[in-house]
User: Which sequence fits this backbone?
């Protein structure tokens, strides 16, 4: 019969997670500008340009803007986020992998 | 493949769910036609049209939780519920708190003994760790580092070294699909104080300090960053046996003809320092330096590497002296400069490497030098693979022969051990 032991928990302290609301949705995409954001990883460009081709073919009333992020995906890109806020109505972020 | 991890990352960033659409995997390497067929086709997860889901994701109304986001707090109890040794070993295994090998259970007495070897308070914050850029950073205290050091089998006198490693925030369990491992080089007086090995077998399982400090680096990384669980907090496709050890060793300063790594990094020779490497995936090797073709042999080894890696040269003291005597490279800096001058490949090949496309090409187009200038090269122009800042040289080994290796490992940070005594 083994004795009972008391030991430490080895995990660190997780941060509090603070809620982030999703961006408001649109009632329609017609006549709106949708940014197609390329995160520049593993052929994301081909993926986003295929999405653009779909819109051109199936929803020509939607204006799409193919937008590669400024640098590598590990760096924040406030200039791009600001451009989308000012000029876009919606954004789709594409990750190739 | 990425359903679990993407949902998990979304939750940890404060959203109950995101409007995500999944395509067949992989996208990388497929033709334009194949990728277009994915986009115009059916999602393997939902069974719905990919683009129908995309459009719906942008236009379907948000629910109350979408508008509020997800706020929650978690706690980590200091102690586990009392149990038998066998039950606790099983609990640690089941909770993914180990490297799947038995651990030394962190009893109150063992952790207290570890804590006696630092002047820092148990509740002092040592640093923060995360599995990837996208996951939340966890915080760790001196006591929590001590718990993991005990689990690894480290002796209490090793504790300042382990604290210094933890203070860098570098993870030996980074969640890259490339399956990375960590590596630690120790310099200065602490090497002898705790009897680390810099000589014969230094990188192998032959020295308690080397072995257990490396294991502690791995365990503290996974437990203090919130886990390293395949499919969630670890996405390394093949895994990496080097991650069992996180190779940790002392530089053989006494037998090296060159200045030690920590002095190169701006520390004084009598300071004790850890230099923590990440992204270690492999090592190439060869023996000696032959007068006629050593330059070709070295170029061949370098061309075998992915240019996105950072090369760390690990030289037995015999090999280091051969680089001086045969190669005429009198200092580490001479060797590093030679490597950068001669480690070249055609620009067309360089920019076509997938990892260069992922990590260097975007920076080049952003105007970051010297990458932006490299991008202007013609496809057949030979361009350097690395800059001197990316290359490191460490002398280690017992002079049983003049072997040398190139590890693909990036120096993440150095930290002074003396600050943690």
Assistant:
């Amino acid at each position: 019969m083994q004795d009972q032991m008391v030991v430490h928990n080895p995990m660190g302290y997780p941060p509090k997670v603070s809620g982030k609301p999703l961006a408001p949705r649109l009632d329609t995409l017609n006549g709106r500008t949708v940014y197609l954001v390329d995160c520049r990883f593993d052929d994301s460009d081909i993926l986003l340009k295929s999405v653009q081709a779909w819109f051109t073919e199936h929803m020509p009333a939607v204006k799409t803007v193919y937008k590669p992020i400024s640098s590598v995906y590990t760096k924040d890109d406030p200039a791009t986020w600001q451009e989308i806020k000012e000029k876009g109505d919606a954004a789709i972020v594409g990750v190739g992998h | 493949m990425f359903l679990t991890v993407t949902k998990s990352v979304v939750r940890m960033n404060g959203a109950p769910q995101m409007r995500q659409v999944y395509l067949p995997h992989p996208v990388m390497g497929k033709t334009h036609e194949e990728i277009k067929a994915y986009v115009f086709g059916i999602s393997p997860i939902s069974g719905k049209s990919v683009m129908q889901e995309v459009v719906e994701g942008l236009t379907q109304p948000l629910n109350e939780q979408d508008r509020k986001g997800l706020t929650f707090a978690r706690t980590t109890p200091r102690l586990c519920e009392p149990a038998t040794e066998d039950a606790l070993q099983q609990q640690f295994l089941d909770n993914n708190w180990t490297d799947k090998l038995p651990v030394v259970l962190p009893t109150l007495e063992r952790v207290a003994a570890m804590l006696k070897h630092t002047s820092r308070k148990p509740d002092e914050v040592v640093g923060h760790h995360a599995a990837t850029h996208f996951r939340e950073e966890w915080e760790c205290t001196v006591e929590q580092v001590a718990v993991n050091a005990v689990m690894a089998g480290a002796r209490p006198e090793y504790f300042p070294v382990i604290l210094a490693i933890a203070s860098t925030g570098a993870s030996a369990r980074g969640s890259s699909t490339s399956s990375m491992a960590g590596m630690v080089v120790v310099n200065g007086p602490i090497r002898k104080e705790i009897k680390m090995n810099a000589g014969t077998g230094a990188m192998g399982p032959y020295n308690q300090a080397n072995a257990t400090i490396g294991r502690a680096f791995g365990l503290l990384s996974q437990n203090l960053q919130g886990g390293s669980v395949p499919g969630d907090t670890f996405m390394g496709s093949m895994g990496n046996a080097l991650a069992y050890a996180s190779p940790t060793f002392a530089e053989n300063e006494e037998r090296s003809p060159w200045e030690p790594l920590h002095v190169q990094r701006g520390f004084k020779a009598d300071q004790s320092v850890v230099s923590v490497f990440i992204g270690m995936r492999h090592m190439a090797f060869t023996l000696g330096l032959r007068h006629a073709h050593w330059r070709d042999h070295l170029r061949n080894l370098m061309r075998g590497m992915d240019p996105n890696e950072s090369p760390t040269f690990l030289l037995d003291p015999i090999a280091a002296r051969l680089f001086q005597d045969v190669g005429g490279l009198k200092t580490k800096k001479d060797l590093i400069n030679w490597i950068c001058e001669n480690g070249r490949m055609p620009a067309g090949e360089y920019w076509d490497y997938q990892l260069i496309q992922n990590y260097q090409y975007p920076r080049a187009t952003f105007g970051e030098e010297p990458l932006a200038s490299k991008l202007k090269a013609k496809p057949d122009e030979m361009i350097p693979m690395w800059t001197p800042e990316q290359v490191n040289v460490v002398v280690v080994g017992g002079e049983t022969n003049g072997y040398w290796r190139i590890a693909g490992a990036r120096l993440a940070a150095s930290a002074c051990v003396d600050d943690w005594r």
Remarks:
- Chain B touches chain A through 86 residues (CB under 8 Å).
- The radius of gyration of chain B is 24 Å.
